[in-house]
Design goal:
Order of helices and strands: HHHHHHHHHHHHHHHH
Distance between the termini: 84 Å
Oligomer: single chain
Helix content: over 70%
Low-confidence stretches: none
Number of strands: 0
Length: 299
């Protein structure tokens, strides 16, 4: 087994990406704390919002800036862990961590408002995200995107936006389109739509992706995170240099991990939705009881 350190510090820790994320975090606190009074209809930043947004930034760096990102090009199962965290956890944290008044300002822009309103319709949001995710993991498409730096950056960025839009009807506090049973149905539908892509990967009997099985395509995909100059000095035969599993078992493990993590994440969200719905029902029941008792108390 070879060490990841052979790819260099920049490939392992992405210092420029780290600086960019630090800049985003500083800008977030400047906007929501120091310069908040320059905007109308605002509210103080809560500790919860600040902590959640900070966690989202840290997670984003861990997934896309730490050695995990490099591992995602060497081992398919690491890639699928990236997918689960990047598209199923981080978008939720950003939605919750960004104050409502900031979201309202963003959604007031003439171009953003109608487009966002259309894309966040439950059926549209579900179909677009899951469709893009499944399309991305079609072998021919996957290999093509993974060997082009600009296309990969563009597609994964749009997919992240669509993941945020997909989570919006469930976790946003700016507007409410789904309540109670509708949210539960939305979560189940989301899980069902993601299943075919995972099943395709899990039950394949041969390695499907050239960028994880063909040395030439694999080396080309490494250029997404490793300098071509460094790659030219290395003698690489394929991902088996860094992974003790066979290519097929690595691929199958990736599909299983994606499905298991998806079920865990959706299960947690489902529990929260059910608990909130139950609390609301209990509160409404208590109010009804008070209304019934009110005439008796007035007598």
């Amino acid at each position: 087994m070879f060490s990841l350190s052979m790819f260099g510090f920049n490939a392992l820790w992405s210092p420029y990406f780290l600086l960019a994320l630090v800049g985003v975090l500083v800008g977030y606190f400047l906007l929501t704390v120091k310069f908040r009074e320059k905007f109308k209809d605002t509210a103080p930043l809560t500790v919860k919002q600040g902590v959640i947004f900070s966690i989202a930034i840290v997670l984003l760096y861990v997934i896309k800036g730490s050695p995990i990102d490099l591992m995602g090009h060497l081992m398919f199962y690491a890639h699928m862990i990236q997918m689960a965290v990047l598209y199923l956890i981080i978008p939720q944290l950003f939605i919750i961590g960004i104050p409502q008044w900031v979201w309202k300002k963003i959604l007031q822009f003439p171009i953003v408002k109608p487009l966002f309103k259309f894309l966040t319709r439950p059926i549209i949001a579900l179909v677009f995200f899951n469709g893009m995710f499944s399309f991305y993991h079609i072998p021919l498409i996957f290999d093509f995107i993974k060997t082009d730096v600009f296309l990969h950056a563009a597609y994964t960025s749009v997919l992240f936006v669509m993941a945020t839009i997909m989570w919006w009807p469930l976790v946003n506090q700016v507007e409410s389109r789904l309540t109670g049973l509708k949210k539960i149905g939305y979560i189940f539908a989301d899980g069902i739509l993601l299943t075919p892509a995972c099943a395709l990967i899990i039950f394949a009997d041969v390695p499907m992706y050239s960028t994880f099985s063909d040395p030439t395509a694999w080396a080309a995909s490494l250029e997404l995170c490793v300098s071509p100059t460094i790659l030219s000095t290395l003698s690489l035969s394929g991902p088996e240099m860094f992974n003790s599993m066979s290519l097929l078992h690595d691929q199958q493990l990736g599909g299983v991990l994606m499905k298991v993590l998806q079920e865990i994440i959706y299960g947690v969200v489902l529990f929260q939705v059910f608990f909130e719905w139950y609390q609301k029902e209990q509160e409404e029941t208590e109010v009804e009881k008070l209304h019934r008792l009110e005439p008796q108390l007035n007598e």
